[in-house]
């Protein structure tokens, strides 16, 4: 805490890992303690902070702050998304980069961990403003990334449009077409299934969690938060698997459809979201549904809860409500959406709980597959990428089971993911000497 003042999210993420990893090292691998692996993993290898100036449509000069946190490169080039949101600060990016190290390790792919972004708010900006911002951001970022060095991707506020503008600027500066970003369009180096990967992967993981308990997902009631990339594709896959999804949300409130979303209804939500609709009024006018401002999905009883919006969006009160209402599975589509208090309560209750670093790793996994395709100059089919994604999610589930199975037979996915993700990085760090 003294080394990282005013970084509560980063301290939260480190504490959550340390609580599992320190007892593991004491019991099974004291060499990692001697090597001070955890202390070294906590310190980013490099943090870059830079000025991003751009001109808005009125000709006024705007100034934002850009960052790239290069956390750990023990098992591969830094890899992790870029977030554009006014909430971005060093604490948030360090927590995300730290989580990314373990998540990327769990995928089994050779990917180090990083994260970046800016306090730029893409909402209510014109296309041209977004483009000018992205170009200015990449002008500096281009000095620090490369296909064998650091390969950023999208995150909140950064989708295919932003990746396009960022990629175009890198190409203009360097005069080379290389895989320096993932999440590219399918016609210019992107992988099929990348937009769907985090949401689909989340559901592949949930299926495994339920399978472990002999429960079928068919007919189960699911509440989802968020209505962005992860939420939309999680909802689509859940509906395709036969579940009933009854909520999505945004920072203003929650949309509840008691009959459950169909695929057509989800596409309608996507259209409204892309138009910038905040209250889903066109949806509630058309379908028997309600939008409740200031509320979250966790007020509605469900079997499975999938927080897919943002960090610390599900607190102890929400967790108590979910437990009381009979929810038996919580899997994180977002990064660290449950507060530390909520996680403790959920674990105590016996609910199956999967942390984001395991359950939402599908996105970075397919980003890793995009890097492979770029290197060999190939485009794999949708079926091939989807099959690989499913395989990776099953492997992550197996790793969690291996390291997280308790004497009672219950699986502590948090412990399994923390230890499973840690070991590979720790071994590589030991092998590479004191650096
Ligand atoms: P998007 O920007 O596409 O969507 C984010 C969604 O969350 C929006 O609907 C947004 O609503 C909502 N939201 C933001 N803040 C809040 C809040 N305080 N309360 C309720 N809703 C909120 O982002 P993604 O879907 O890509 O990312 C969502 C989460 O998943 C993040 O934690 C991200 O780090 C994580 N993640 C994403 C991956 C990916 O592949 N995209 C991979 C792994 C993790 P509004 O429109 O009001 O802002």
TrEMBL record:
Residues 191-433 form the Glutamate/phenylalanine/leucine/valine/L-tryptophan dehydrogenase C-terminal domain. GO terms for cellular component: cytosol. The keyword NADP does not apply. GO terms for molecular function: glutamate dehydrogenase (NADP+) activity; nucleotide binding. The active site is at 115 (proton donor). Transmembrane segments: none annotated. GO terms for biological process: glutamate biosynthetic process. Keywords: NAD, Nucleotide-binding, Oxidoreductase. NAD(+) binds at residues 198, 229. InterPro entries: Aminoacid_DH-like_N_sf, Glu/Leu/Phe/Val/Trp_DH, Glu/Leu/Phe/Val/Trp_DH_C, Glu/Leu/Phe/Val/Trp_DH_dimer, Glu/Leu/Phe/Val_DH_AS, Glu_DH, Glu_Leu_Phe_Val_DH, NAD(P)-bd_dom_sf. The record marks 155 as: Important for catalysis. SMART domains: ELFV_dehydrog. SUPFAM superfamilies: Aminoacid dehydrogenase-like, N-terminal domain (SSF53223), NAD(P)-binding Rossmann-fold domains (SSF51735). Coiled coil: none annotated. Belongs to the Glu/Leu/Phe/Val dehydrogenases family. PANTHER family: NADP-SPECIFIC GLUTAMATE DEHYDROGENASE 1-RELATED. This is Glutamate dehydrogenase.
